[in-house]
Design goal:
This protein has about 350 residues and is an alpha/beta fold. It contains 7 helices and 14 strands. Strands 1, 2, 3, 4, 5, 6, 7, 8, 9, 10, 11, 12, 13 and 14 form a 14-stranded mixed sheet that branches.
């Protein structure tokens, strides 16, 4: 059985001295609450940064009493690994249904855009057995609806040990093939050609050039980047490959965060969960803990940078506590899902 622990080793520490001039406007920000139990577990391997007391302009936001549980503006953030996997699986399956049911694979008058999606579910254990079990939980019974023949999935792993572990875990799934990225050039091309969708699971940044070549060869069929090993903040340093990585539509992602005061600390997350296959319609929401609830304090149309989230939290905490001490950013699920004491 898969572990119920979620986490990832990527984290980012932030030095905050004053709000940046690039602070986005908050006139369209909504605050929406959800029931959220008090976390019993704390983040690990975090670094904090000092924030000097400083007066600041209050964060402007319009309040609403609508619960996220019943709101159409945003789905619930997950409180367990099982719920996170289910949310992400539902998001991806509904998003893949349209391209996988599209009979016109290649346009006659113009080149179609290749469907490229990205899913991020942080995990504590990235051993071969753990990752293959996560892949099995996710792709073993993913509910993609398509008329006619079953969907054939190709999962590409970063190395041979992960591929071998997955082959054992998926031995009863005849419609799912596995290859490792370094050996892709030696693989029978019929395996690639017969697949309906390709999943690149936990690829390394050093493999991006090869990943791009494989994806270009797989055109026009859909591809998925699942739990890439690099952090979002690194992508601007990928040179010519930055645009390629940025061309993937994120259907599910979150990043944990913590704001620490002298006598208290508040937790939250950056969260996106696409519903009904409408990638362009879902926003990135910033949640912050208030009492035993998480509330949306800001939302972004595009994936927010660390600086943008930093400014939101700086202003928010300055309103409530002039002695705010530090902010911690950790890529990972909110602390009570990490399974760590």
């Amino acid at each position: 059985m898969a572990s119920s622990c979620l986490h990832t080793t990527h984290f980012h520490s932030i030095q905050i001295s004053k709000p940046s001039s690039c602070l986005p406007p908050h006139s369209n920000t909504q605050i929406t609450s959800i029931p959220f139990p008090t976390p019993h577990n704390l983040y690990n391997h975090c670094h904090s940064s000092r924030i000097p007391p400083s007066p600041t302009v209050p964060l402007k936001a319009t309040s609403t009493s609508t619960s996220i549980h019943s709101s159409l503006s945003s789905p619930n953030p997950p409180i367990s690994k099982e719920e996170a996997v289910l949310q992400a699986k539902t998001s991806l399956s509904t998003t893949l249904e349209k391209p996988l049911n599209n009979p016109k694979l290649i346009g006659k008058f113009k080149k179609l855009k290749q469907p490229k999606f990205r899913v991020e579910i942080p995990v504590i254990d990235d051993s071969p057995d753990s990752l293959s079990q996560l892949a099995l939980d996710f792709f073993g019974d993913i509910p993609i609806k398509r008329k006619g023949s079953p969907i054939k999935t190709l999962i590409l792993w970063p190395d041979a040990s992960l591929k071998e572990s997955a082959t054992v875990a998926f031995q009863s799934h005849s419609t799912i093939e596995h290859i490792d990225i370094p050996s892709v050039a030696k693989t029978d091309p019929r395996i690639l050609n017969s697949a309906d969708v390709a999943i690149f699971l936990a690829p390394e940044s050093s493999q991006l050039a090869l990943v791009k070549r494989v994806i270009d060869a797989f055109y026009p069929k859909p591809v998925v980047l699942f739990n890439p090993k690099w952090a979002f903040e690194e992508e601007s340093n990928f040179g010519d490959l930055s645009g390629f990585v940025g061309s993937f539509d994120v259907v599910y992602s979150f990043m944990g965060l913590e704001v620490r005061g002298i006598l208290s600390k508040r937790k939250g997350m950056i969260f996106k969960c696409v519903r009904d296959g409408v990638v362009s319609g879902e926003r990135w929401n910033v949640f912050v803990e208030e009492g035993e609830e998480l509330k949306v304090v800001s939302s972004f149309k595009a994936r927010p940078t660390i600086g943008e989230v930093e400014n939101v939290l700086y202003n928010l905490m300055a309103i409530n506590s002039p002695i705010t001490k530090s902010v911690k950013f950790i890529r990972g699920l909110v602390s009570n899902v990490t399974g760590k004491e």
